[in-house]
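Example for tutorial group B:
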C-alpha cells in the first residue's frame, strides 16, 4: 500500500499553492494516472512520492507519505544530466541487481523491448540514443531493480507505437501499483482504472484535486455531465433570483414611497406601513441567506486555445510545397546509413506524419527536410524540435524570448497571449528553464502563431500537452491553413490530424 496524507505543495518562488490537501491511497492492482494542465504540479507530486528531497529546491511540501515495504521505481521525465555521459553498460551496471540477471533473462528483456541483445553491454553513450531508446533504457533498468511500485513520469514520450502497445501491456499486467503521468490519451484510456486530476482554478489562485476510481473516458464524460447539470441549475437559480428580486424591489419601493408620503394625520396607516417594511426587510435578509446556498457556476480549468497561423499562410491545394529527395540518410555522426532512396512530395495544405521504430532516423530526416525547405522560395518554415532546448534560450523569460525589441505595446500583446495560454503573471517572469515541458511547448507554439510561416515542421507536437489539452492542440494543427510535416506516435493525432502517413524504413518512406 502507498499512501499520501494531507499533502500541500507550495511553489517557493511565487508562493502559489499548486497542490492543496491531497489524500489518496493506492493498493495492488491500481493503475492511477495523474492528469492536469501544464505546470499544475504533476511531476512535482511524483518526485515527492519517490524522494521528497528532489523537490526541496523549488517547492515547499507539507504532508505525509507512507511507503511501508513497497519498493519504488521512478522513471524521470527527462534523462538526468548525470546519466547522459555514461555508456549503456555503465548505466546498467549501476543497478545493484544487474549482475544477478542471467544472460537468458537479459536476452528475454531485450527481445520484449525490441532492442539488440547486446544493448546492456554497449559502449554507446546514453546522450546519443534516440528519445525512444532513452526511455527504453530507463524502463529496462527500472525492471532490473524489481520494484513493487512503478512511478512513471511520461513513459509514453518518444516511444514508437509498437513500444507504446508493449507499455500498455506492462501496465495492464502489473499486479502491484502503477502511478503514472501521460499525455497519450489512448494509453490512458487503455490502462488507467483510477484518475487523479490536479486543477488550478479561479485564475490559478486555487488548487482542486479530484481522486476517482474509474476509467478515464467515464471520468471525463461524468465530469462533463456534472458540470453541464450544475451550470443549468446555476443559470436557473439566477433566473429565479432575478424574478424574485424584481418582485421584491417593486414591493419594497412601493412601501417606501407610501411611507414617505403618508399623512401625519393617519398614524394608524403609518404604523401599518412601518410594520410591513419591517416584514419586507426581514424577508430580504432571508433571501440573502438563501442566496449563499445558491448553486454556483462550475469552476472548470479550461483547455488552452488560440489560432495557429493566419490566412496569409494558406497554400493552394495544387501547389507543390516540397519535393524532397535524399539518396542516403546517415546517422548524425555519419557512421552508418539509416535509410536510402528517400522521396517525399507534399502538395497544398497537407498534414503529413512520419512514423517508424525508435532509432530509425525520423528526427534526423526531419532536420534534413528543414534545411531543404529553408532555402525554398515562397516557403516560410517554422520548426518545433523534439528537444525544445535547441531553440529556446533557457535563461530568459517567455516574454523576452518572444520579443527582443523591448517595445511596450508588443510586450503587452505577448503577455495577453501568454495569459490565454494559462500563464500567470509570475510564470511570465520565470526563466524558461523553470517551466514545465508543456509550458515550453506553448512558448514555441505561440512563436509559430505570431510568425508568418506557411509550413510547420513538428517533431512530436503533442508529447508535452495534457490529455485535456490534446483535443484542442489537434484541432489547432488540423485547421492550420498551410502544410504540416510531423513525426508522431500519438495515435489520436495520427487519426484526427494527418491526411497521409509514411513509415520510415531502411528502404525509404513507405
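The residue assignment follows.
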Amino acid at each position: 500500500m502507498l499512501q499520501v496524507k494531507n499533502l500541500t505543495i507550495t511553489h517557493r518562488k511565487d508562493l502559489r499553492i499548486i497542490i492543496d490537501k491531497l489524500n489518496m491511497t493506492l493498493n495492488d492492482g491500481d493503475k492511477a494516472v495523474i492528469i492536469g494542465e501544464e505546470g499544475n504540479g504533476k511531476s512535482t507530486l511524483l518526485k515527492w512520492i519517490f524522494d521528497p528531497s528532489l523537490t526541496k529546491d523549488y517547492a515547499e511540501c507539507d504532508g505525509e507519505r507512507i511507503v511501508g515495504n513497497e519498493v519504488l521505481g521512478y522513471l524521470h521525465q527527462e534523462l538526468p544530466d548525470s546519466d547522459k555521459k555514461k555508456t549503456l553498460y555503465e548505466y546498467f551496471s549501476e543497478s545493484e541487481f544487474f549482475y544477478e540477471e542471467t544472460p537468458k533473462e537479459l536476452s528475454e528483456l531485450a527481445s520484449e523491448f525490441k532492442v539488440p541483445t547486446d544493448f546492456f553491454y554497449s559502449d554507446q553513450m546514453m546522450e546519443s540514443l534516440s528519445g525512444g531508446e532513452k526511455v527504453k533504457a530507463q524502463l529496462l533498468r527500472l525492471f532490473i531493480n524489481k520494484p513493487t511500485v512503478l512511478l512513471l513520469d511520461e513513459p509514453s514520450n518518444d516511444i514508437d507505437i509498437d513500444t507504446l502497445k508493449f507499455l500498455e501491456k506492462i501496465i495492464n499486467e502489473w499486479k502491484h501499483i502503477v502511478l503514472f503521468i501521460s499525455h497519450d490519451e489512448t494509453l490512458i484510456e487503455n490502462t488507467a482504472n483510477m484518475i487523479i486530476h490536479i486543477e488550478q482554478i479561479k485564475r490559478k489562485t486555487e488548487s482542486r484535486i479530484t481522486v476517482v476510481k474509474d476509467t478515464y473516458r467515464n471520468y471525463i464524460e461524468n465530469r462533463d455531465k456534472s458540470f453541464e447539470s450544475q451550470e443549468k441549475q446555476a443559470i436557473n437559480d439566477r433566473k429565479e433570483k432575478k424574478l424574485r428580486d424584481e418582485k421584491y424591489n417593486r414591493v419594497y419601493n412601493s412601501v417606501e414611497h407610501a411611507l414617505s408620503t403618508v399623512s401625519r394625520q393617519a398614524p394608524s396607516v403609518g404604523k401599518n406601513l412601518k410594520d410591513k417594511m419591517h416584514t419586507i426587510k426581514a424577508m430580504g435578509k432571508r433571501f440573502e441567506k438563501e442566496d449563499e446556498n445558491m448553486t454556483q457556476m462550475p469552476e472548470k480549468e479550461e483547455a488552452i486555445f488560440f489560432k495557429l497561423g493566419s490566412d496569409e499562410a494558406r497554400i493552394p491545394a495544387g501547389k507543390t510545397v516540397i519535393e524532397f529527395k535524399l539518396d542516403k540518410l546517415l546517422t548524425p555522426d555519419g557512421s552508418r546509413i539509416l535509410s536510402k532512396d528517400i522521396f517525399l512530395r507534399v502538395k497544398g495544405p497537407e498534414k503529413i506524419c512520419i512514423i517508424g521504430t525508435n532509432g530509425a532516423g525520423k528526427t534526423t530526416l526531419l532536420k534534413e527536410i528543414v534545411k531543404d525547405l529553408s532555402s525554398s522560395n515562397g516557403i516560410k518554415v517554422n520548426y518545433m524540435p523534439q528537444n525544445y532546448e535547441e531553440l529556446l534560450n533557457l535563461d530568459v523569460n517567455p516574454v523576452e524570448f518572444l520579443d527582443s525589441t523591448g517595445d511596450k505595446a508588443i510586450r503587452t500583446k505577448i503577455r495577453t497571449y501568454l495569459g490565454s495560454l494559462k500563464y500567470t503573471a509570475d510564470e511570465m517572469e520565470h526563466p524558461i528553464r523553470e517551466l514545465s515541458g508543456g509550458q515550453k511547448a506553448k512558448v514555441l507554439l505561440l512563436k509559430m502563431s505570431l510568425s508568418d510561416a506557411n509550413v510547420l515542421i513538428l517533431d512530436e507536437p503533442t508529447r508535452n500537452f495534457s490529455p485535456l489539452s490534446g483535443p484542442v492542440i489537434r484541432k489547432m494543427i488540423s485547421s492550420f491553413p498551410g502544410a504540416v510535416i510531423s513525426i508522431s506516435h500519438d495515435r489520436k493525432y495520427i487519426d484526427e490530424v494527418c491526411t497521409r502517413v509514411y513509415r520510415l524504413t531502411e528502404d525509404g518512406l513507405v
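DSSP finds 16 helices and 17 strands in the chain. Compare this with the pattern of hydrophobic and polar residues in the output above.
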